[in-house]
Fold this sequence. Notes:
Layout: H1 2-43, H2 66-73, H3 77-108, H4 114-124, H5 133-142, H6 147-158, E1 168-171, E2 176-182, E3 186-191, E4 194-199, E5 203-207
Antiparallel strand pairs: 1-2, 1-5, 2-3, 3-4
Amino acid sequence: MATAARSGQGQARRRLAGHVLLHAILIVGALATLVPLGWMVAASFMTAGEANSLPPRLLPQHPTLQNYVTMFTRLDLLKHFINSAIVTLLATVLSVLVNSLAGYAFAKLPFPGREKLFKSLAAALVVPAQVGMLPLFLLLMYFMAIRPEQKRKKEAAAMMGNLRSGDTVVTIGGMHGIVHLVEDRTVVLRVDSMKITVDKSAIARVQRDETARPESK
């Protein structure tokens, strides 16, 4: 009896040690995943250049919301967020509706060719979604779904020959900047306190106030 009791206690200790080791590994893995994410959130509240300081700071010294204000004003992030939310919501609702009807048909309704069709659908799930990205993009271009962006690029290209210092331009990514220097294929922009060089093909729109800047004689 005593030997059995000691054996049972030894097994219990080994199970406890195994559980402790497993949870320790999981905690280390969770920290390795969450610490970079937490630092990115903290860096979003840092002032310009503070995230690049050495040694790097874990928390902002002077927290600021200016980065978020810039995102929602200069880059118009709210519009892109709403567009993504609408597309995601519609895709989710349609996917649940169609897939539930198809699943019910495969499970409850016998029809000719059901097994072959189900195997074909199951085989299609193996194909990565990235394979269809390029054909989908070409399909959207064919149906002129992104023609407004092309129109803005053509309008901006028409003004490239007359582009001059002081003009305000908007890039395809939504960044606003003031022209500082015009070169053959690139343009140097002043964005806040920084100077950024972009390709002329990346400019989507040019804003110019002709009344405020009369031509010099």
